[in-house]
Amino acid sequence: MPDFRKIEGAIPTQVRILHPPLMKFEFSAGGIVFKKEKDKVFILVSQHSGHHGWVFPKGRIGDHVENEGRKETALREVKEETGVEGKILNPLKPVTYFYKSEGENTKKTVYYFLMQYLKGEITDHDWEMENVEWLPIEEVEKRLSYPSDKKVWKEAKELI
Question: For the chain, what is the radius of gyration of the CA atoms?
Fold first, then answer.
């Protein structure tokens, strides 16, 4: 192996291995809420007020309540962001994706739960969402903005 210290301007491979780019890790939980009215099934979706994408409600675990668990976070975030309360029926496979914000790389894992609607009004959502809607089940996939939401939706749809 060549002695990189003797080659002007060379960047030793070892430095790249020993000093990888820093990455932040985030963990969130949320819900895919459904309700049945007569013969139809409706799914709760929301439009984020920051990036304007259509998503399922979710939020960071433990950002408001110390030692909060995944289920508790999911129930809280659904209520805060949509005005709706749900009952957890099934955990779904976690989804992971990467994003970059203010020059920082982040790996985010989201733990979703399939939920049945209990009560609440979508007009009571918080500022994080600019729109909240109940969509007929057949319209959900085309409304969702991101691959990670579409992926978990495919699993949830099979369980409804």
Answer: 20
As given in the structure block, the two tokens for residue 132 are 């909240």
Strands (DSSP E) contained in 92-137 are: 95-101, 104-120, 129-136
Residue 67 CB partners (closer than 8 Å, separation 6+): none
User: How many CB atoms lie under 10 A from the CB of residue 47?
Assistant: 16
Q: Say what the pLDDT of residue 21 is.
A: 61
- Tokens for 38? 């007569």
Q: What is the 3-state secondary structure (H, E, C) of 6-64?
A: HCCCCCCHHHHHHCCCCEEEEEEEEEEEEEEECCEEEEEEEEECCCCCEECCEEECCCC
Residue count (the chain): 160
Query: Which domains occur in the chain, in start order?
Result: 31-159 (3.90.79.10)
Buried b (16+ CB within 10 A) or exposed e, 52-67: eebbbbbbebeeeeee
Q: What is the pTM of this model?
A: 0.83
pLDDT beneath 50, residues of the chain:
1-5, 7-19
Tokens representing 97 are 């994706």
